Amino acid sequence: MEKINIGNNAHVYPMPVSLVGSLIEGRPNFMAVAWLSRVNYMPPIIAVALNQRHHTPKGIQENQAFSVNFPGADLMEKVDYCGLVSGRETDKSGIFQIFYGDLKTAPMIQECPLCLECKLLQVVPLPTNNLFLGEIMGAYTEEIYLTDGKPDIQKMNPFVLTMPDNNYWRIGEWAAKAWSVGRKLKEKK
Ligand SMILES: Cc1cc2nc3c(=O)[nH]c(=O)nc-3n(C[C@H](O)[C@H](O)[C@H](O)COP(=O)(O)O)c2cc1C
Questions:
Q1: Distance separating alpha carbons of residues 122 and 130, to the nearest angstrom
Q2: Is 35 in the pocket of ligand 1 (CB under 6 A)?
């Protein structure tokens, strides 16, 4: 089949859905974020790409800290709401139960199966967004979300986003073991 070029407004496909937490003038705020990735092995660094118009960057700069919270599909409506309204006009501090870790200035969400507490390392300016690089200082979860001490995607039940069609999707079935399923081909070469 011939490939067709559908233009340059392309995205990572699919994207994990998260809530980035920050403390802005003493008030916890959460925004929906899907443009994120782990970007360094050691120390563990995560990057989130935030539009310069949003309220969240103010709090991250103010405290040099933020959190990345991975919600279960049960929180879809609340997550979407956090992506529709800005903390500049609307108080989003009462939507979730909040807890703090060692940094004390990165609000995290009790209802989320996995919460990362990050110390701001660097801000990379881009034309419309800024890339916030944070060192992961701690990852908070509960025993019910773990298998063999590691986060278990089936227990966490996260959801993903596709753009530009703008849809949420649940995670499907387990497929194969990574760094393993390709071994047969490697051995043949
Ligand atoms: C599912 C979803 C994902 C989003 N991902 C991003 C993102 O990665 N970066 C971004 O700048 N805005 C993103 N947004 C938009 C912000 O969440 C939204 O503008 C929010 O109201 C900003 O909140 P704040 O002004 O309180 O910081 C996303 C929105 C939704 C619904």
A1: 10
A2: yes
Alpha-carbon gap, residue 93 to 31, rounded angstroms = 11
CA distance 22 to 31: 9
pTM for the full predicted model:
0.97
Cβ atoms within 10 Å of 98's Cβ, excluding its own: 17
E strands present in 4-141: 15-16, 18-24, 27-33, 36-40, 45-51, 65-70, 98-99, 108-109, 114-125, 129-140
Atom 13 in ligand 1: residue holding the nearest Cα: 33
Q: Tens of pLDDT along the chain (189 residues)?
A: 999 999 999 999 999 999 999 999 999 999 999 999 999 999 999 999 999 999 999 999 999 999 999 999 999 999 999 999 999 999 999 999 999 999 999 999 999 999 999 999 999 999 999 999 999 999 999 999 999 999 999 999 999 999 999 999 999 999 999 999 999 998 886
The atom of ligand 1 lying closest to the CA of 30 is 26
In this structure, what DSSP letter does residue 101 have?
-
**Distance from the alpha carbon of residue 56 to the mean position of ligand 1, in angstroms:** 9
Ligand 1 pocket residue status of 30, Cβ below 6 Å: no
